[in-house]
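To: structure desk
From: M.T.
Subject: fold request, one chain
Message: Could you run this one when you get a chance? Sequence is below, nothing fancy, just the single chain.
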Amino acid sequence: MFPLYMSLDYSQAVSLGLALVLGVFFGFCLEKAGFGSSRKLVGVFYLYDMAVVKVMFTAIVTAMAGLFLVSLTGNLNLADLYIEPTNYPAAIIGGLVFGAGFVIGGYCPGTSVAAVATGKTDGLAFVAGIFAGSYAYAEFLSGFDDWLAQSAHPDQTLPVLTGVSMGWYLLLFIAFLGLAAWGMGAVERRFSRT
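Reply: Done. Structure tokens follow.
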């Protein structure tokens, strides 16, 4: 859990308990924001409700700012964080599969669990599909993992690739977030269901 393992010694039971509490809180927030509703979630694809994209952009920039600020205090060395190796073919294929599932089912994995927790049967069907797809992948595409590992590139971050510091990227992403929020508001007003 974040860099807490570096400075605090948690037992596995405490770690699992914290994960459960954080998961329930996260699910509660998703439901309160309306993200347990497939109708609200697919609104982004019809351009009349961009709330999901706004929340995701804001979360990304907030996490980026938090990591940067904690690293400035010396409490976290960004080099100690694990970064999943970059795999462009896998990202493209995964993005297409994820996007198709999102459009067809109206949920992403996290929001589908929130929907199940509130008794929505479409969320239950989506979660069942996640398990079936995961099982099928493990059973029938085992060689795919080898191909993925061979085409992966470690340490593919913007600062590493460009030599520009994370602080400049943070400022750029904050500016982009503001511009994107304004643009999404304009799109919502244009396609609003009134």
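Reply (cont.): Residues 166-191 form the longest helix (26 residues). Let me know if you need anything else for the meeting.
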